[in-house]
Amino acid sequence: MKRIALILFLFCGFYLQAQIIEPVKWKFDTKALGEDRFELLFIATMDDKWALYSQFVDEGGPIPTTFEFEENEDFELLEAVVELEENKVTKLDPIFDMVVSKFFDKATFVQHVKIKNPEAVIKGYLTFQACDDEKCLMPTDVPFEFRYAASTLKVGSVDMGEPVDVDTDGINQLLYGMSPEDILKSDQSCEGQARNLATNVKQTKSLWNIFGLGILGGLLALLTPCVFPMIPLTVSFFTKKNGKNTSSSGLSKAILYGVFILLVYLILSIPFHLMDSLNPDILNEISTNVVLNIIFFLIFVFFAFSFFGYYELTLPSSWTMQTTKGESVGGIIGVFFMALTLAIVSFSCTGPILGSLLAGSLTTDGGAWQLTAGMGGFGVALGLPFALFAAFPGWLNSLPKSGGWLNTVKVVLGFLELALAFKFLSNADLVKHWGILKIEVFLGIWIITFAGLALYILGKIKFPHDSPVRKLSFFRISSGVLIIAFVVYLASGFRINSDTGTYKSLTLLSGLAPPVGYSYFLPNECPNDLNCFKDLKEGIAYAEKVNKPIMIDFTGYACVNCRKMEEHVWPDETINNYLKDDYVLISLYVDDKRTLPQTEQLMVNRIKGGTRQLENYGHKWAHFQTQFFQTNSQPFYVLLTPDGRQVLNQPVGYTPDESDYAAFLNCGLEIFKQNQAESPELNFSVN
């Protein structure tokens, strides 16, 4: 009895967690306009936090709301369906990288019609998709009917259809190779799966990483001809005045000068905090906007040719004049204006590096604080040498003299800027599906860029301000060899991974290059270079062959949080290893519009009554999810035995915490391994 009670408890828990949800309710109405003209009103009310998408969504985005009318000569549609602007919000969606309009609380759609027959009947259906902060519904069809009688157009009674006498079990066997009652639920659980509350630790680690990148950028800026020669000049100014040694007061002012340099760059991040407080998504919206990514690309190319020496980037001379006047005030204020003057006059060298840092910070999570961390690191690296050399003036003698090597550093940075520019063009290309900068083209551009850098280092290429290279130093030769080795590494990206049928991904280019599946010659639609199946039977057959458990991924092309999981959770090293080595991934897209074979276009019963016709693959997989797992939201992840007949542990939906998701995968794997040596009848119980 205890065992039966436990089974019932687990089953009820599974059912409650995986229930059918209906956050959008539709009602219909009409309004007479005179002269046999009417308004058809389609009114949707949404639960709290749920949103309904507009009719007008660009290709590649979420599923729009659409209306289909059965054609007949009894009525005429006057223009298209109009959506009222009330409760409509339009902003850039950070996942789809596009501006999307959606409705909260309530949405009203209006269609004008003209009646031509006194017994006219208007029939059709609407299709919609809704999402909240964690999940999206599969696209849903809602039928409607309006009847005209006695000069009045009224809402008709839609016939959802009575359950038809169909061979449900036969249909399930034909479509999926199993029936819902064949799915067995596990009575096993895993220990040690407490939630890992490490979010703050991870965010802190991320801030320190950005701070470190800022320091690196500041050190590079120090080695440019705009900044490096100013170190001895500025330190000498603080340690000597009017020919007399005033090192005590000069030291304090030099330290203050370094602090003010840091402060100047921290101040530059303040506007981003103000924007972030007004709209928490503003930084993500800036970074993921297609137009801005193209602008970033053009700016980086512009920066690169400035570093090559073809022109100089300078801020208005009036700015320098005003800050120079401020220096004459003296005291602390004068020192601050000296720091501000340095930031302005060195802009031609620091601007491109700082721009790279800003753009890089904008593409990560964490908002304005990551910008502040990057700016802080940049300011520390730029200001610290002035304070240190003022404290230890003797160190100035150990500095290399200014010369042609400074311009060499500048040109090297130009090559790096040019390579990074194509990252932003790649972002826009991926979002818009232009197919221009696929992995082959991207790697080819980087190979050419860094081969050019190697030739420059070895003195084979010259730019306008370069000094003649009379003899290759050991440093130049060793640097050239390292860059050539990197070019060879880039070329190795064209090796084919026999396991996935794609090119082998390059770890050093992770997050920079397009996905290896985004290819002209070896396309692979699975995320993160994973090997996945998009057909249930094929995936199960493969899983049985290799004896690996299955992860069914109920997803959608227009599912916001599905993309979040694939782009931000699945790349985690632990999770990626599970999905790549331990599980067979079957991704079933509930919004796949490809037409089913004629033999599979069957009439089936809905889980809550009525019937529906399966017309496309999205219908097929949506029906499978609702019938077999009693849920209709995505993403939804189910772990099964290789034959697809036994659930290993509790399915989960949107799980943005990597540690929780890894625990879910590890739990299923442990149960699978444990049951390899045991009889399934002792560990699984039928629904």
How is this structure best described in words?
With 687 residues, the protein is α+β, with helices and mostly antiparallel strands. The two termini are 16 Å apart. Strand 12 and strand 13 form a beta hairpin. The protein folds into 3 domains: 136 residues, Thiol:disulfide interchange protein DsbD, N-terminal domain (Immunoglobulin-like); 202 residues, no CATH class; 162 residues, Glutaredoxin. Helix content is 45%, strand content 18%. Strands 1-2-8-5 form a 4-stranded antiparallel beta sheet, with no helix packed on it. A 4-stranded antiparallel beta sheet has the order 6-7-3-10, with no helix packed on it. Strands 4-9-12-13 form a 4-stranded antiparallel beta sheet, with no helix packed on it. Helix 3 packs antiparallel against helix 11 and helix 9 packs antiparallel against helix 10.
